[in-house]
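User:
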Amino acid sequence: MDLLLDTSAFLYWSRADSRVPATWVEPIVDPGNTVFISAVSAWEVVNKRKLGKLVFDGSTNDAATFHEFSWID
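Assistant: Predicted structure:
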């Protein structure tokens, strides 16, 4: 199955945030599924950081790579 995480879900997952519902864990970690992140999410993270509305250390690419997520345009 293909999954597309929105920006909030990506950020919650990357931070191991408690707001990640338990029902999300199995589909995201299932090696039979492909998890995608939109390039728009990277743009949104960069812009929110510039505006001071988001604290996110590191790069979205590094986080996506670490979690084995794929990018989609």
